[in-house]
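Changelog entry

Holo records now carry the ligand SMILES as an explicit input line rather than a separate metadata file. Below, a converted record for pyridoxal-5'-phosphate, shown in the new format.
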Amino acid sequence: MSVAIIPQANPGAGYRALKTEIDSAVARALSSGWYILGAEGRAFEAEYAAWLGTTRAIGCANGTDALALALRSLGIGPGCAVAAVSHTAVATVAAIELVGATPVLIDIDPLHYTMDPAELDAVLANPPAGLPPIRAVIVVHLYGQPADLAAIQASAAKHGIPVIEDCAQAHGATIGAQKVGSFTEVSCFSLYPTKNLGALGDGGVVATNDAERADNIAALRQYGWRTHYISDSAGVNSRLDEIQAAILRAKLPHLDAANARRQAIAAAYDAALPAALRPVRRAGTSHVFHQYVLLVADRAAVQADLRGRGIGTGVHYPAPVHLQPAYLDRIALGPARCAATEIAAREVMSLPMYPELTDDEVVRVCDGLRAVFGQ
Ligand SMILES: *Cc1c(COP(=O)(O)O)cnc(C)c1O
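Structure line, unchanged by the conversion:
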């Protein structure tokens, strides 16, 4: 007997759950006759900034571009190094190279999978030889869990360099009562379909409380125009289109409930797993579970076993950036040589996680976890 597989991610279910609202938003955008940088985009930017708690949000084409635009708005380019992590979507590092800067990759704290602030502090004080000066830090709130931002900001502040939050996986995660993406000079979000807030295509957001920086980013995303057809600076084309903006406006009012549903699913998985396998939550923060990730030494076997029970799993990410073919042997690392990152890459496994999982499916996943891990 073959069982239907519960997929690890399911963006189609996200569309179907809000089909009426999304279809009418798309129809509205189509019939408006205006398809790029219009009323839907402006309204989405205002609504997103209000939801996030920043004064400005600027839509762009994707999360990678959001990072590149943020870096450019800080004057980061050739002759600058940027500290980031290797245990992330390759986009984080690709964006640094996109602006012509040089990445230097810091290891993770193995409990939370986010940047190790102690190693960052050491690298800022004593950078690896042969590197241009480190001019910025990108901190990734990976899997929906806030990084140790206060410690990272304190280290960066000692050297007078800015921190950029990569919130591509953490829309709505909080530190204290404040949402990530509102703490630093500039922050970035991806709106890729599987993210906590996902378009039905590509999209990204840069957020800031600085009006001048916001205007600068808004110009950079469209050829450096402040006035139509006049480029004050050499920009790029990285616009969020009106159809995606309309879809995002339909989805944004449901984001907090969707994150709460992810957290409830995470609590159910916790209860089905031995305590040692449960993801560790950082004290004083709320985790929005873009992914529910556990470490399993015999990952391939566990994934096959779960699959046999109808449970899809994923691996985020099977190879750290510095070991991927495009980056191998040419990226500067901190003194820890990304040892914890390499262990995580071998052992991380992601369970099904999206708000539209039914209660019945969650029970099926939990039953599978109990059978496989013997809780
Ligand atoms: C998804 C993601 C990005 C890039 O977003 P795109 O929209 O795919 O360009 C950047 N950083 C992290 C951590 C991500 O998960």
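Spot-checked after migration. The longest helix spans residues 255-272. The mean pLDDT is 97.
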